[in-house]
Design brief:
ten-stranded mixed β-sheet; globular
């Protein structure tokens, strides 16, 4: 197989972790007989510095012409004072809108080797956590009408959804649940919001097509509480842009290993998907060989699975990561008792962790 992958290293530790993901992808290509061509894309804060624009059109065009897109991280305090219209995060919105990727799949997995890092009690997490959040990505309050009064004393943001925008997320939730534990929870605020009542109406209309999946509903406030009180009750969660933003960050924290969690943003399959770790740009450790590359490496596995339909190759990466963790290798963020890990000679940096995964492949 020959494919083109657009790389957006971005800001902070983005270049560090993307470099290791590329090494892993190359190892997979060599082992399974695939050939990847890479195209570099400048986006985020580095694009503001170079172009005065977080996502120039010609850079977006590179992504649109690729078979898939791998992103490191964007943003950092260096750009806190730039005009809001060109903040680095605008690159993310531009990529999502331009690439027409409307569904964010974010697994929240507690790796058994890292169970000690989970902030919840053992009796709550049991043998582990494995939750998939399907977040609507291009609609809702983040993209609705907004404004600020001329006197600056009032402002508004509008939550708006169409039937079609909701249906494609709900369907993806049902389809994802079919390959898992067959449970889908739609999270909304239907006791207050008209848009949330539409989410429920769509879900009720679609559910007859998926009789093997158990459908339930929770209000967002209760869902946020339940994620901490009893996270094992969840399998797949489907929800709106803002609620998904909140819940996916909460879910990532209860796993105790944010440096391990990948994500994918998908459209209708006619164009490339966007794959990225969920952690930030961490500019304080950029270029110091300290960042954990495993979330980006696992994002590369998702890239192979969803865009290239290479399940065996995706599992090879995931199994390699598990094997490295089984042997006790840790970067600083997942070390737990860092002095004990140092004493055991198992504390490694970004490059060493990437090399270990390559060796397992």
């Amino acid at each position: 197989m020959k494919k083109t992958i657009a790389l957006i290293p971005g800001d902070g530790i983005g270049p560090d972790v993307v470099a290791e993901a590329v090494n892993v992808l190359n190892a997979v290509g060599n082992k399974f007989g695939h050939e990847w061509t890479y195209r570099d894309v400048i986006a985020g804060g580095v694009a503001i510095d170079k172009f005065g624009n977080p996502l120039p059109k010609d850079q977006l065009d590179i992504c649109l012409k690729a078979d898939s897109v791998l992103l490191g991280a964007v943003g950092g305090p260096k750009w806190d004072d730039v005009d809001p219209s060109i903040r680095p995060e605008k690159a993310l919105l531009g990529l999502r809108g331009g690439m027409k990727v409307y569904a964010n799949l974010r697994p929240a997995v507690m790796f058994p080797q890292l169970k000690a890092a989970c902030p919840l009690k053992d009796e709550i997490v049991g043998d582990g956590l494995d939750i998939l959040i399907v977040r609507e990505l291009t609609g809702g309050i983040y993209f609705g009408d907004r404004g600020t009064a001329s006197d600056g004393r009032s402002a508004y943001d509008t939550e708006k959804y169409t039937w079609e925008e909701i249906e494609r997320i709900v369907r993806l939730g049902f389809q994802s649940a079919q390959g898992r534990k067959k449970k889908l929870c739609v999270v909304d605020k239907a006791n207050i919001l008209n848009s949330s009542r539409l989410w429920r109406k769509v879900a009720e209309t679609v559910k007859s097509e998926y009789p093997d999946v158990e459908l339930s509903y929770l209000y967002i406030d209760n869902a946020a509480m339940q994620l901490v009180r009893n996270p094992r009750q969840f399998d797949v969660i489907a929800t709106s842009n803002m609620f998904g933003d909140i819940l996916s960050d909460e879910a990532s924290q209860i796993t105790g290993s944010i440096g391990m969690l990948a994500s994918s943003s998908l459209g209708d399959g006619t164009g490339p998907g966007l794959y990225e770790p969920i952690h930030g740009s961490a500019p304080d450790i950029a270029g110091k060989n300290l960042a954990n590359p495993l979330a980006t490496i696992l994002s590369a596995a998702m890239l192979l699975r969803y865009d290239f339909k290479l399940e065996t190759e995706a599992k090879a990466i995931e199994n390699a990561v598990q094997a490295v963790l089984d042997e006790g290798w840790r970067t600083g963020d997942i070390a737990g008792d860092i002095e004990a890990v140092k004493a055991a000679g198992k504390l490694v940096g970004t490059k060493e962790m990437g090399k270990l995964v390559v060796e397992k492949i």
